TrEMBL record:
Residues 39-49, 70-80, 167-188 have a biased composition (Basic and acidic residues). Residues 19-56, 70-213 are annotated as: Disordered. The gene is FAM133B. Belongs to the FAM133 family. It comes from Myotis lucifugus (Little brown bat). This is Family with sequence similarity 133 member B. InterPro entries: Fam133. Residues 104-121 have a biased composition (Low complexity).
Length: 213
């Protein structure tokens, strides 16, 4: 069986549009836009001047708002000034009261000077006693610090002595081990003497004689 023919005929879109004819446009064309009525240069100038001037109603509204803001600012300033004045007056009153209280204190101190002289002598005695107690406490603390220092030094010396003793003992053990090894090697590698040979021969002869018997 042969293959199917899947080819499609090519259609030129420009030729198709031309065959359809002119399209009815819905709306103004470019020529209508270009031929629209335009204002003259004088009319444009008048419109710009009007925009610069603005509307009368807006200008009146801005003036009223500015006047209202000015009034509010003046009221606020008056309040602040009155508050500052009252605060300054209060400060002056406080200063006067302090001065009066200071005078009263000076007068009372002059009247109580006789009493304070007697009490000052007692306070001086108490200060002396406290100074002696402080000195005693300082001496005790100094002695305790010296004793603690001496204890620490003695402990450090004892620790050093113990370390030295341990080192000496370890060295002695090492030396003894080395000597034992040397003695063993001497015993192994020492040549047999003539006396030892004669003794061994004597022992062998005695053993042979016993076997014969």
């Amino acid at each position: 069986m042969g293959k199917r023919d899947n080819r499609v005929a090519y259609m030129n879109p420009i030729a198709m549009a031309r065959s359809r004819g002119p399209v009815q446009s819905s709306g103004p064309t470019i020529q209508d836009y270009l031929n629209r009525p335009r204002p003259t240069w004088e009319e444009v100038k008048e419109q710009l001047e009007k925009k610069k001037k603005g509307s009368k109603a807006l200008a009146e509204f801005e003036e009223k708002m500015n006047e209202n803001w000015k009034k509010e600012l003046e009221k606020h300033r008056e309040k602040l000034l009155s508050g500052s004045e009252t605060s300054s007056k209060k400060r002056q009153r406080k200063k006067k009261e302090k001065k009066k209280s200071g005078r009263v204190k000076y007068s009372s101190s002059s009247s109580s000077s006789s009493d304070s002289s007697s009490s000052s002598s007692d306070s001086e005695d108490e200060d002396k006693k406290q100074g002696k107690r402080k000195k005693k406490k300082k001496n005790r603390s100094h002695k305790s610090s010296e004793s603690s220092m001496s204890e620490t030094e003695s402990d450090s010396k004892d620790s050093l002595k113990k370390k030295k003793k341990s080192k000496d003992a370890s060295e002695k053990e090492k030396n003894s081990k080395i000597r034992i090894k040397e003695n063993k090697e001497d015993v192994i590698y020492k040549p047999l003497s003539s006396e030892s040979l004669s003794e061994s021969d004597y022992i062998e002869e005695m053993y042979h004689e016993k076997e014969k018997e």
